Amino acid sequence: MCGRYASTKNPALLAAEFDAVDGTEGDEPGPDYNVAPTKRVLAVVERHPRDDEGTPDPDTLERSVRVMRWGLVPHWAKDTSGAAKMINARSESVLTKPSYRDSAAKRRCLIPAAGWYEWQPGEGRKQPYFINPGDDSSLAMAGIWSVWWQQEGDERTPVITCAVLTTDAIGEMTAVHHRMPLVLPPDRWHAWLDPDLTDPRELLAPDPALVDALELRPVSMRVNSIKNNDPSLVDAVALGESEKPEPTLFELS
């Protein structure tokens, strides 16, 4: 967990919601009701703007919506082949695990979502749920990001990747799965994004009030296949709907 989620708002709407600017330069991935590992996603970052010589302004911060690829690739990795296995970072070890600790200290982000999908074990199949705020607001999943440089001849191209932090499930979430994304309330957004805060451990606990307010909505097993991608995936269905289950990716962390 988290292995699938929905991202339905355009960068302009997210910029307004997260008090940011649209930094996608028209290259946004578009609405996605079945976001899967290695897809291009939208994330919110906060950085010190740099001048023409690359020098950051320590007195100014700019929050922006950016495009990243889901599946963290550390800057020291030889290639991007392990990205699909690094979509999640456990909050319990993110500050110490070599693959994540540098990003956790220096490059944190928020990954907006309309909600995420989780599969509840059952007799012979798993029932998918769409976990969401119950209104039009976005969830802010805590994330980290990294820059990996793609070398092609004499050209170096940055590949910006990210991972979602996960934590032990609490409240009603425990009835569906033992893990959940670390979802941050608005009063933690600034601290989480602050590039000058290098020790975010006080922000790594889930917020019970936020989690208790989330809606657990049973949805169609069509979401099991990433080939399906339309608004009906988030519609509620009656429990017991008979469809062929497919493997999920939620144990990757």
Automatic annotation (TrEMBL):
Signal peptide per UniProt: none
Domain of life where this protein originates: Bacteria
Enzymatic class: hydrolase
Pfam families from the UniProt entry: SRAP
Assigned keywords, A-Z: Covalent protein-DNA linkage, DNA damage, DNA-binding, Hydrolase, Lyase, Protease
Keyword Hydrolase annotated: yes
EC numbers: 3.4.-.-
InterPro entries recorded: SRAP, SRAP-like
Recorded GO MF terms: hydrolase activity
Family indicated by similarity: Belongs to the SOS response-associated peptidase family.
Protein name (database record): Abasic site processing protein
